[in-house]
Amino acid sequence: xxxxxxxxxxxxxxxxxxxxxxxxxxxxxxxxxxxxxxxxxxxxxxxxxxxxxxxxxxxxxxxxxxxxxxxxxxxxxxxxxxxxxxxxxxxxxxxxxxxxxxxxxxxxxxxxxxxxxxxxxxxxxxxxxxxxxxxxxxxxxxxxxxxxxxxxxxxxxxxxxxxxxxxxxxxxxxxxxxxxxxxxxxxxxxxxxxxxxxxxxxxxxxxxxxxxxxxxxxxxxxxxxxxxxxxxxxxxxxxxxxxxxxxxxxxxxxxxxxxxxxxxxxxxxxxxxxxxxxxxxxxxxxxxxxxxxxxxxxxxxxxxxxxxxxxxxxxxxx
Length: 318
Hints:
Strand content: 15-25%
Distance between the termini: 32 Å
Structural class: alpha/beta
Number of strands: 11
Shape: globular
Radius of gyration: 20 Å
Number of domains: 2
Largest sheet: 6 strands, parallel
Order of helices and strands: HEHEEEHEHEEHEHEHEHEHH
Number of helices: 10
Oligomer: single chain
CATH topology of the largest domain: Rossmann fold
CATH class of the largest domain: Alpha Beta
């Protein structure tokens, strides 16, 4: 309570447009924002601008993102008319909880988010949620706006495999964290047996891991193995085949969101083994999935368009 009281009493002297977009990058690097988060908030901002909806994307100044409004302390933002939280799992995070409490009179909207049952207290704080998964009428993620078709023919022997793993997803609770090690172990074994050079792809933005470098790695490798939702979507958008494992028992956003694209190589950790995936990896390395990549890319474009349109519609409501 002492921490919230300090934030609540902070002088709020930063005036912004009526619609304020916040994301994990609003807290700087400590918020753990990813490339997918950044792309999602930028895509939504571009669509809002096209619709002449005045808004500001709030980001910590340490990023220096073009077109974003730099705010070092988001608790100094004057009361907004609408607060929009963009992308990521909607978790009962203390910082976000305090920020929403300060803007208690604002209409609160969450878009492009994963809705988790065990974070229902946070879910109830929003007047409207446009969820990419975890809700009955889910839409899609907002991150993908650029598509690179796969080459017409694969002229060189595959040399590299991207490894993009999430690690333990604590937001789902202890009971649903047990399979992350299994998923990582499967990928380590596949990469080692393939003879390909492994390239680690970390989608979390850091000073040493900027957005441009992350995106370049997806384009540079020949195939990707991932437990991340954005890892799979960014791979497909780059025209790369991908094997995705949903490491949350029962399935979560990897299954739900990537599954909507029609890409068939998405598996649940509790149902898969290294032996099962060895043949899949060999098939994909032979370039046999080009048509499937193109079909998935087409689905991503249509699904993203619908999700953006739905999100803007929710924000535009009085």
